[in-house]
Amino acid sequence: MHSGIAELLLSLFVIIITAKLFGELAQRLGQSPVVGELLGGIIIGASVLGLVRETEILHDLAQLGAILLLFEVGVSSNLFDFLKVGIWAFLVAVAGVVLPFVLGYGVCQFLGLDSIHSIFVGATLTATSVGITARVFSDLDRCHTKEAKIVLGAAVIDDVIGLVILAVVTKLVASGTISLINIEYITAAAVLFLVSSLAIGALLAPYLIRLLRTMQVRGMVIAVSFSFCMLLSFFADRIGLAPIVGAFAAGLILSVTESKTHLEEQLKPVSDIFVPIFFVLMGSLVNIKLFDPFVAANQPVLAIAAALLIVAVAGKLLSGYTVFQKGINRLVIGAGMIPRGEVGLIFAGMGLTKGIINAQLFSSLVIVVMATTFITPFLLKSLLKKSPTA
User: Fold this and answer.
1) Cα–Cα distance between 81 and 86 in angstroms, integer?
2) What is the DSSP letter of 324?
3) Contact 32, 19 (CB under 8 A)
4) Rounded distance, CA 93 to CA 315, Å?
5) Looking at the domain that runs over 64-278+301-386, which CATH code has it been given?
6) Predicted structure pTM score
7) Minimal CA–CA distance to 259: which of 251, 249, 270?
8) Integer Cα distance of 369 and 75 in angstroms
9) Staple 154 to which of 39, 93, 169, 341, CB 3.0 to 4.6 Å?
């Protein structure tokens, strides 16, 4: 057998078994399985046992897992319910971008960093990873709540705003000038994609599903629905959005069809295999050696990370208080916006590869990203249990 495929098969065996065992352990301890998957990833990652290393194909499979997760969440939701909370989602998204950016910039200036570093760190803190929050809502069967709809809607808008900010910062560093035409193009393309795909899809999808149900080939509905998800994810990626935004839009479109329940059931076995790959692999990227305070080189990294973590959490928590609707748990909304996850890692990684930030500041950002990713499931589950909408 070719060594490449052999390594992939062994890695998948280790990842999936680790995900299920640690997910089971976390659930028995009263936590979301995603916590176990992240912890399991750390243990089998390079900084502990070194059983799994990220390869290009594993990275792609993990991204497919994230896409499937958001597709499943979209299908389980309701497009019209999302439209009802649209204004609140927009306000949460704007506040969730502005507050962390301003606070992050201020802290960096206070710590003596220059303006470019401060701007980039502030931009990185604006990110929101919907994957972690979506998984917790899904595990607790709360995707139908108003809080979940606002958070997921805000995360999509957050991605659009984050895309514009990243483009601005990258252009600023590369040329020292910002092209307003480029910013307007990116923003218009993102908004046009979301609005047109939801509007056209919601009109045509019910008729397409009815046609597919008349066909005799087994699995026709799930296969075409899955392909539709891949197509919208592809288009989202082509215009510079995260593919998960396209997947979420595809799920929302199909949520108004008569095959909604059938699709939910058909998606579960596929998601149970691919989604944990994403979380385990994300955990495997954590270098726990950075958390050792007795290593002199780690102390400045940890000090900066601690300060940024405080403002990263506070900025997102405060964003939930832009919602003034009765019966809404604002703290749940704010907590749902906290994790930076893969989005934050992408921001930080781009800054390092383009020479915008140094390795020390990159390490601080990685610690913040991973810390927000780990604390969210614990915090969110605790708040949801106390929520009056439970």
Assistant:
1) 9
2) -
3) no
4) 11
5) 1.20.1530.20
6) 0.71
7) 251
8) 28
9) 93
